[in-house]
Specification:
heterodimer; A: about 130 residues; mainly beta; 1 helix; 11 strands; B: mainly beta; 6-stranded mixed β-sheet; 4-stranded antiparallel β-sheet; about 50% strand
């Protein structure tokens, strides 16, 4: 059974940077490379917000997607040799304060530039607080 | 971007009641819709994908329907363990927006 463990959450000042990691276990390195993965966040007392996604498979590591609220400041990436997903967060703002979940995706198809994926396995999350 | 609107934002029902939550997309998303359950203090859990396909292990009292812009999650007989917030999510294209959530409580 796939398990996801996020880390890297911390208290950071506005304008600062942080890199989150998500280590996958319970699968082989080859399998991780084929998975689409996402980051989802949840501000305190609020709902879920999809943040970013990355497609797996041959060449899939270069296909990334972002919410408008983080585009240009956050970067999703993966190291398949380490079964690890990352989220580099720059120019952090107070509204980025949240619990950040890593999620494994089920990719159901694609058409043109669109990939269809939903989240079937979630980590427990890591907390990011942006405050002075 | 496509917006996802859930209603109601909260509801209270008795054990055994039939509960219906709706999710409306601002544009046609075909059947690329998933439903998640998040119990208090817990991690979200996938319930339904492709608008109506039950995820393995999910009790059969949960069902989903709809296509295009209007979708429904139904709990046929509400149980105490169903107390949670339920979210819809579109996944036809990025951004994979979630609805605002529906909090379900026991009366």
């Amino acid at each position: 059974e796939v398990q996801l463990l996020e880390s890297g959450g911390a208290l950071v000042h506005p304008g600062g940077s942080l890199r989150l990691s998500c280590a996958a276990s319970g699968l082989s390195g080859l399998t991780f490379s084929t998975y689409a993965m996402s980051w989802v966040r949840q501000a305190p007392g609020k709902g879920l917000e999809w943040v970013s996604g990355i497609i797996g498979g041959d060449g899939g590591g270069s296909i990334t997607y972002y919410a408008d609220s983080v585009k240009g400041r956050f970067t999703i990436s993966r190291d398949n040799s380490k079964n690890t997903l990352y989220l580099q967060m720059n120019s952090l703002r107070a509204e980025a304060t949240a619990l950040y979940y890593c999620a494994k995706n089920i990719l159901t198809g694609s058409y043109s530039a669109n990939y269809y994926f939903y989240m079937d396995v979630w980590g427990k999350g890591t907390t990011v607080t942006v405050s002075s | 971007d496509i917006q996802m609107t859930q209603s109601p934002s909260s509801l209270s029902a008795s054990v055994g009641d039939r509960v219906t939550i709706t999710c409306r997309a601002s544009q046609d998303i075909n059947n690329y819709l998933a439903w998640y359950q998040q119990k208090p203090g817990k991690v979200p859990k996938l319930l339904i994908y492709a608008a109506s396909t039950l995820q393995s292990g999910v009790p059969s009292r949960f069902s989903g329907s709809g296509s295009g812009t209007d979708f429904t999650l139904t709990i046929s007989s509400l149980q105490p363990e169903d107390v949670a917030t339920y979210y819809c999510q579109k996944y036809n294209s990025a951004p994979h927006t979630f609805g605002g959530g529906t909090k379900v409580e026991i009366k």
